[in-house]
Amino acid sequence: MYPLSLLRLPHQRTPKVPIISGIDEVICSEREPPQLPLSNHQHSHVQQSEQLFALSAPSHSAQILISGTIVWAHHEIEQLKQYGEVVQLTSTSRQQFYDELQTKYANTVAIYRHNDSAGKIGFFDKELIDRLPSTVKFICHNGAGYDQIDVSAATARGIQVSHTPAAVDDATATTALFLIVSSLRQFWKAEVNARKGVFKQGLQPASDPEGKTLGIIGMGGIGGAVAKRALGFDMKIKYHNRREIQPPPSFPCEYVSTMDELLATSDVVSLNLPLNDKTANSFGKKQFSKMKVGSVLINTARGGVVEQEAFINALNSGKLSSAGLDVYPEEPKIDQRLIDMPNVTLLPHMGTETRETQHKMEVLVIDNIKSAISSGKLLNQVHEQK
């Protein structure tokens, strides 16, 4: 294990990130949703989780700040104590956090960051990152998407950032497939009607997924997992990335070099791309105009990549026959107009909310911290810093 004095980062350069312009040039990197508020089951673990941090490593060790609640990976947290003093975030406001950075958290080297900490100390924006002690060298985020972290500010401070890409692929892809089937078959509305005692009434003619073309924007880990599941329904797969995947995927799919062609030839479009300055509101009026009349939009990425008014208009005009959403621009708020639409399937950003996936995510964050402290390198460093 490296002593604290040896935890020095290599000389940091401004990462050479390609200049991209909007959704046509998006890098196929995907997300795991901001975490939902803790469920009753998770709340039952909070006290137990906090008790795990009562026993700490010797005071001379590097501090590891846990900014969030460990629900599943209790054994791994115990192991983490061999790498440093594990400290639980107790600050209840940003100002209190700033004050305690000079005292309680003054020797922090690595931060386990979870989106549920945003309710207490806010996003890891430039202001917060600039206030971190100089000892902080690593921010290890629990999530594939990391739009709540200012990576540029972290890079300027010599702080490496990691995320949990592969851990979320299966659960998010399963969510996307549910939304695809529900949107095509109107299952959600049929279930609501059945619970009201309305039997097979008030439904428009539905569509089979078999033989339909699924266009995937962002064929990364999640996009690939969506494709493989959709093939089980005999859907045809097309995808658009900045570049064609080489070597080609092991499953049948067609690369489409332009966004316009993908939209014009797909019956269902699945968004699997990150939210950043280049992709925010980048799927808008122009993109909807290129889609087939009566097509379907599925979004399990981030609500902010879709321009909301253009989306509502596409649904109202019939350009979109239906849509399936797990993400929204202003979570937890959902636009009432979407709630009132019987042809839109809505989920409360629960793409990764399974015990198996949450456990995998927690373990991967802890593994990144272990690697950071023992070798000075992260296992899953964000692409902007590579």
From TrEMBL:
InterPro entries: D-isomer_2-hydroxyacid_DH (IPR050223), D-isomer_2_OHA_DH_cat_dom (IPR006139), D-isomer_DH_CS (IPR029753), D-isomer_DH_CS1 (IPR029752), D-isomer_DH_NAD-bd (IPR006140), NAD(P)-bd_dom_sf (IPR036291). Residues 73-382 form the D-isomer specific 2-hydroxyacid dehydrogenase catalytic domain. Residues 178-351 form the D-isomer specific 2-hydroxyacid dehydrogenase NAD-binding domain. GO terms for molecular function: glyoxylate reductase (NADPH) activity; hydroxypyruvate reductase [NAD(P)H] activity; NAD binding. One of its GO terms (cellular component) is cytosol. Keywords: Oxidoreductase. This is D-isomer specific 2-hydroxyacid dehydrogenase NAD-binding domain-containing protein. It comes from Wallemia hederae.
